[in-house]
């Protein structure tokens, strides 16, 4: 491309001797020569992108690390082979995906197949950037309610998650045995257990309460299980859940550093033996497995009143979409690839290899045969709730308010009730 | 410049008889050449400085959201974005934090930077080596530096708290980054560490420009050490000091990476500044209109300091 720019302008200096007797003109020509590459650049030397062959589809996702990178890549390639196309896959860092999509959207270079984090789907679908699945021929039945609602915008499905995840309570089996504590099932048991397990440099509990959507995500199971609703966050039900988290920190049974920890930091604390229990997701399992001498187990997160409440887990996972590129034949090809990618066999295999749960309940049984230890997550995922189910594209404002409330309450700046009332103003 | 052009042109005119003498033609040509030479620079400025600034100002008056990128539609919002951000409870916190962060950082950086610069005025064994070590914070990528500082400052396992507890200075780890009352102070301290090299290098350069004779003459009159600093160094250094301070303010106002790396604006917005707020509005909630509004406010504040600088500079020249 650079070369083409240079060669078009290369002609200009060559004409210089044609006008003798006007020495200044040589300067003019030099100046023109200096200007020309810029002008050529502006004229759109870099405009032709994405003109790949009709049987090559471009894919964009965020699986930069193994095992996800190879597992997803393998499943995509297998699906493409069945359809008879080749894929050109690009993986970018998770936090730069939306920026990349926006750039591509404004320059008309969206990929043919796009992965999105599920809470972002409705916002992107609202912009008309995606094609509904019924028009590109991707089957949409058989998914859990959470997966379907996360992928639906304005009554039509725009994206589906092959496998999903959520968060639960991981605990150090030996630490609980030593302290004679049973895995907690209620909030009061959780607070007691956290107290009994706090010893020396080890805290009872670690969770993520940082000022990002991760902090919101970890508060949600406590928020929802107790009957709170994201349409009105300043309620006693929401405050009770927040008080539980803030209380363990105030009691000194969880570190104040939870305010800065990401979920990966929480896992590091747990692995290093500085927390006996942690709130985290199954994507940490491959790393936990690789730690020698660590004996851990997973249970669902406790609820306030097990008699009348059931755990409500937030739905996590990435959805796959077909962007509206304007090339109808490629959009249909992309739809066919995704249909294969989302086939039973492909889903179970991806789920088993990535420690995530298939998005279709019918596949959970064959999945558990391969990964029996994932039972706690599989149960949770069946009833998992999508963050955007109620608020859709308006979710980010509420998500911001929720982590603000977590920060205010956990840092002791305000009581749980006041923190939520103050945070409500951000919505 | 003008004379050389004429001289270079005249031999050519002497050998080849001029075709038709058009009065003013040569002059016009020269103007054209001037314009052509100016062209690339002007174009560059317009393209990479003018356009983004204008675009940002315009964006502040638009409902510029994710949809805009796909549909190209950004409805006019008037002052809505400004009303929204200034009216939000976060704005006052962010403004106050920005002021505290800037004043605190500049004061720390300048005083320590000046001390380092004065110290290295004297030559002693290894002074050259040590002086280059001072530059270290400048050479480390800010994201890497903030990640390492985050480790150092961790409440339980950070090396700083380990040392403090080990020495018996405190009983339990100090929550450097997780306490709402300490986090801003900690972030300022880290930013001071990063800013010392810049201040020290520029001020050291200024010190080198002060002739030794002045100190010799001063010494004869009894001005040594502190008095020499007050009556010789400080007045001679004044122009450099203004440059350092004004540039420092402009650089500090827009600091984003260190805060994002250390606290992300938390805990409970204790380290939220206008820069982090603008970043979050644009790239976390994707409300680019409001993000632009906040950054425009930040630009205006920077411009005020730039204007002050230009004014001070002009006065210095006049004197």
Compile the SSE list and pairings.
The complex is a heterodimer of chains A (427) and B (319).
Chain A: H1 2-14, H2 23-42, E1 56-61, H3 68-83, E2 86-91, H4 97-107, E3 113-117, H5 121-125, H6 133-136, H7 145-151, E4 152-153, E5 156-157, E6 159-160, E7 163-164, E8 168-172, H8 173-179, H9 187-197, E9 203-206, H10 213-225, H11 236-250, H12 263-271, E10 275-280, H13 285-289, E11 296-299, E12 318-321, H14 328-341, H15 344-354, E13 357-358, H16 364-370, H17 375-382, H18 395-410, H19 416-424
Parallel strand pairs in A: 1-2, 1-3, 9-10
Antiparallel strand pairs in A: 3-12, 4-5, 6-12, 7-13, 8-10, 8-11
Chain B: H1 2-15, H2 25-59, H3 66-71, H4 80-87, H5 89-119, H6 127-134, H7 136-139, H8 142-152, H9 159-166, H10 183-208, H11 212-220, H12 225-253, H13 257-262, H14 274-283, H15 288-318
Helix pairs in contact in B: 4-15, 5-10, 5-12, 10-12, 12-15, 14-15
What's the short story on this structure?
The complex is a heterodimer of chains A (427) and B (319). Chain A contains 19 helices and 13 strands.
Structure in words:
The complex is a heterodimer of chains A (427) and B (319). Chain A has 427 residues and is an alpha/beta fold. Chain A folds into 2 domains: 26-165 and 316-382, D-Maltodextrin-Binding Protein, domain 2 (3-Layer(aba) Sandwich), CATH 3.40.190.10; 168-299, Periplasmic binding protein-like II (D-Maltodextrin-Binding Protein, domain 2). Chain A is 47% helix and 12% strand. Chain A is built from 19 helices and 13 strands. Chain A has helices at 2-14, 23-42, 68-83, 97-107, 121-125, 133-136, 145-151, 173-179, 187-197, 213-225, 236-250, 263-271, 285-289, 328-341, 344-354, 364-370, 375-382, 395-410, 416-424; strands at residues 56-61, 86-91, 113-117, 152-153, 156-157, 159-160, 163-164, 168-172, 203-206, 275-280, 296-299, 318-321, 357-358. In chain A, the strands form 4 sheets. Chain A has a 5-stranded mixed beta sheet, with helices on both faces. A 4-stranded mixed beta sheet of chain A has the order 9-10-8-11. In chain A, strands 4-5 form a two-stranded antiparallel sheet. In chain A, helix 1 (2-14) runs antiparallel to helix 2 (23-42). The radius of gyration of chain A is 27 Å and the shape is globular. Chain B contains 15 helices and no strands. Chain B has 319 residues and is an all-alpha fold. The interface between A and B is large, with 51 and 50 residues.
């Amino acid at each position: 491309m650079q070369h083409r720019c240079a060669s078009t302008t290369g002609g200009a200096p060559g004409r210089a001797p044609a006008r003798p007797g006007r020495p200044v003109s040589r300067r003019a020509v030099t100046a023109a020569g200096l200007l020309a590459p810029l002008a050529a650049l502006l004229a759109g030397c870099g405009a032709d992108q994405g003109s790949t062959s009709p049987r090559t589809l471009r894919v964009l996702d965020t699986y930069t690390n193994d095992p996800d990178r190879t597992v997803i890549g393998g499943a995509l390639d297998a699906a493409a082979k069945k359809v008879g196309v080749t894929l050109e896959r690009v993986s970018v860092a998770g936090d730069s995906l939306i920026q990349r999509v926006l750039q591509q959207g404004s320059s008309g270079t969206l990929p043919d197949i796009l992965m999105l984090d599920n809470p972002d789907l409705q916002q992107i679908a609202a912009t008309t950037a995606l094609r509904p699945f019924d028009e590109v021929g991707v089957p949409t039945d058989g998914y859990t309610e959470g997966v379907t609602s996360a992928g639906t915008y304005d009554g039509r499905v725009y994206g589906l998650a092959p496998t999903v995840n959520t968060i639960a309570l991981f605990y150090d089996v030996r630490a609980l045995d030593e302290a004679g504590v049973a895995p907690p099932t209620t909030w009061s048991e959780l607070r007691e257990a956290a107290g009994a397990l706090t010893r020396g440099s080890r805290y009872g509990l670690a969770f993520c309460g940082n000022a990002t959507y991760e902090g919101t995500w970890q508060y949600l199971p406590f928020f929802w299980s107790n009957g709170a609703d994201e349409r009105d966050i300043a309620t006693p039900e929401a405050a009770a859940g927040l008080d539980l988290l803030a209380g363990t920190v105030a009691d000194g049974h969880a570190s104040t550093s939870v305010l800065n920890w990401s979920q990966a930091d929480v896992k590091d604390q747990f692995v290093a033996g500085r927390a006996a229990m942690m709130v985290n997701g199954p994507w940490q399992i491959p790393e936990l497995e690789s730690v020698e001498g660590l004996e851990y187990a997973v249970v669902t997160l406790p609820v306030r009143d097990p008699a009348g409440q059931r755990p409500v887990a937030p739905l996590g996972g990435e959805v796959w979409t077909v962007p509206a590129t304007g090339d109808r034949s490629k959009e249909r090809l992309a739809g066919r690839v995704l249909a294969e990618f989302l086939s039973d066999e492909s889903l179970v295999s991806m789920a088993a290899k990535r420690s995530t749960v298939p998005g279709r309940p019918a596949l959970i049984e064959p999945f558990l045969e391969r990964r029996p230890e994932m039972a706690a997550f599989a149960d949770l995922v069946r009833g998992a709730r999508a963050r955007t189910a109620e608020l859709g594209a308006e979710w980010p404002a509420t998500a911001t308010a929720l982590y603000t409330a977590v920060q205010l309450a956990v840092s002791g700046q305000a009581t749980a009730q006041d923190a939520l009332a103050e945070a409500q103003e951000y919505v | 410049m003008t004379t050389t052009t004429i001289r270079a042109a005249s031999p050519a005119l002497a050998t080849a008889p001029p075709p038709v003498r058009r009065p003013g033609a040569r002059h016009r040509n020269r103007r054209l050449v001037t314009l052509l030479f100016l062209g690339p620079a002007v174009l560059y400025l317009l393209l990479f400085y003018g356009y983004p600034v204008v675009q940002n100002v315009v964006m502040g008056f638009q409902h510029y959201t994710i949809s805009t990128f796909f549909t190209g539609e950004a409805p006019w919002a008037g002052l809505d974005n400004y009303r929204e951000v200034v009216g939000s409870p976060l704005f006052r916190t962010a403004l106050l934090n920005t002021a505290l962060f800037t004043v605190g950082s500049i004061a720390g950086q300048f005083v320590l930077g000046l001390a380092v610069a004065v110290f290295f005025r004297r030559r002693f064994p290894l002074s050259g080596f040590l002086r280059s070590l001072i530059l270290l914070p400048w050479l480390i990528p800010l994201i890497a530096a903030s990640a390492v500082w985050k480790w150092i400052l961790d409440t339980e396992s950070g090396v700083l708290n380990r040392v403090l507890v080990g020495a018996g200075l405190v009983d339990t780890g100090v929550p450097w980054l997780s306490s709402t009352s300490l986090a801003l102070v900690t972030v300022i301290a880290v930013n001071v560490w990063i800013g010392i090299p810049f201040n020290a290098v520029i001020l050291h350069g200024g010190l080198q420009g002060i002739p030794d004779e002045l100190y010799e003459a001063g010494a004869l009159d009894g001005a040594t050490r502190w008095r020499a600093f007050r009556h010789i160094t400080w007045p001679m250094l004044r122009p450099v000091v203004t440059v350092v301070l004004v540039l420092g303010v402009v650089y500090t106002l827009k600091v984003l990476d260190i805060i994002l790396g250390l606290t992300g604006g938390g805990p409970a917005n204790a380290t939220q500044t206008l820069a982090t707020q603008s970043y979050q509005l644009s790239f976390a909630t994707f409300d680019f209109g409001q993000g632009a509004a906040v950054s425009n406010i930040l630009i205006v504040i920077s411009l005020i300091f730039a204007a002050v600088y230009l004014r001070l500079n002009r006065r210095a020249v006049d004197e």
